[in-house]
Specification:
Shape: elongated
Order of helices and strands: HHHH
Distance between the termini: 26 Å
Low-confidence stretches: none
Structural class: mainly alpha
Helix content: over 70%
Largest sheet: none
Radius of gyration: 15 Å
Number of domains: 1
Mean pLDDT: 84
Number of helices: 4
Strand content: under 5%
Length: 76
């Protein structure tokens, strides 16, 4: 993600202002936020599978899932 989008995501998720985010260690905050976003997307995919397709699925979440499957299949 481009840094401005990541910065906005951090602000939205934490409630911090951009100035407060700048005061934090971005090398720790950004990867943690990315990890949370991936975890949340996978939880939504899992809920979709467990509901047997009864709940609505977001294309972006399926994209995250597809990327992970692709990464897992290339690790040899």
């Amino acid at each position: 993600m481009p840094w401005p989008i990541t910065l906005a995501d951090i602000s939205q998720r934490t409630g911090w202002t951009f100035r407060e985010i700048d005061e934090q260690d971005a090398s720790e905050v950004a990867p943690a936020l990315i990890g949370q976003n991936i975890r949340d997307a996978l939880r939504r995919v899992d809920a979709y599978v467990n509901s047997q397709g009864k709940i609505r699925m977001d294309e972006a979440d399926l994209g995250v899932y597809a990327d992970i499957i692709k990464l897992m299949s290339t690790e040899d």
